[in-house]
Amino acid sequence: MSVTGARIEAIQPAGRPVLLTLILTNTADKALALGPEPYIPLSGAEIRITDANGSARKAALSNGDWGAWSGPLRRLPPGESIDVPGVLPPLPVGDYTIQFDKGVTAKVTVKDDAKLARKQGQELLEKLRRGDDIFARYVFNHYPDPAVTAALLDDLLSDDGRVAGRAANALTRLRKFPKDAGKIIRSAMQNQLELVARQENRDSGALIYLVYLAGQVRTDDALAALLELAHSDKAGGTRADAMNALGQFKGERAARELRSFLKDPEQRVRFAAARVLAKRADPAALPVLLEVAREGQDPWSYYACEALGNYPDDPQAKAARKEAGCAVDRANFASWGGFLDPGLLLQQPSVQKDLKLSEQQIKQVTQADEQVTQHYREGLAQMTFKEQQRQANLQALQEKLHEEMKKSLAPILTPEQHKRLWQINLQQRNDALLFPEVRPEIKLTAEQEQKIRVIMKESQEKAKDFSQDRDSEPGEIPKKLAALRHETTDKILGVLTDAQRKKWKEMLGRPFEPQASKQ
Question: Which of 128, 337, 364, 425 is the S-S candidate for 170 at Cβ 3.0 to 4.6 Å?
Fold first, then answer.
């Protein structure tokens, strides 16, 4: 894959990011797999910028830090090209030459032009209002425009649930909010509740996004908005989501309110409040968590046992975790045990190469993955919005489709390929030692398991901090996450004995080496 061209406005406004489109061409002699992402990620890709004085420096292109993304693999035939959006940090006023690749350059002039800046902001706002442009959200989250922020806050007050929901969704990743944001959110939430009560807005998605947004803003008005919704008889299933948002508030008032919901008539609300309080090791949450853990309702019992891990010295919590252990395994690992999505793994060119898949096998795997993905979409379409918000419903659908994928792959892969795919899967997961298929083989003790869970929890918190750090350069986040992954692996291996490490190395097989793309 090579950069064969670039499109960029010749004049860019000062103080705003430089937006561009790269043209990437498949210069190989066979089709390339692009992955399921909406577009190719550019994190870490470097370009060269030369100013009018001949001073040159390197800069990083970015367009999003992708996590797991589901969907069928796309293929780019030899000689064909694709457009990939990208963004550069703002440049000072002046003239620049940007070199993307050998022979591919672009001239850019940065001017202090308020009219041009407003035009760029308006174009960004229109894309955000459509709600389907992921790149626009990335640009807004990393380079927020005050005028766009104000317009989206105004959209929150719309009687149209789709307009309010899209605006709230676009605002949720902002690092800094205007002082009146909490007040606007409170008014917007009251408005949506009234519309729901009058059945003029059946799309409760707006309420869910507003709840999450209130948890991000964390002002007194935002707290009041959440409490009003949580006590409302119009909010339906959104009341449980409000518990999670209340957990974002660190003050004692929020904790006191959460404790009051431990006696709520609705079990879903009680359980949500208990899980949030468990993160603070609040003893008031224990009775609710113990009740749910002992009921053995997958996946609720798994989450209850996970929350009880915050009380390592409590004898009741220890007993309940031990008693519900089998339910934890069923809920967490389902039909495929500790497998990542096998279809997604097999769509990776480096995995296909490692397993030595034939062209016919690759075609069969792709068809199987596309079929399962289509069944997943059909399953979602048959659910109401509220049903989609219930973890148990989605869990059941995912388990069913994992089993379907398992049956589809059985006749496609050889026994050796199945074994190697499992080894690759183990190498991709820091929590692999906790898989029900692995623990007996390694002879992991309860004490070792607890230590590993603590290490993983600390790692997850650090990863969350990295992802939410808006001061880091976009290209630095994947590097930090990769370093954290290696650090976590080393800590986990340090928990094992020499004999356990030897056995674990045998289970992993030879090291899997993902192929890094040229770009």
Answer: 128
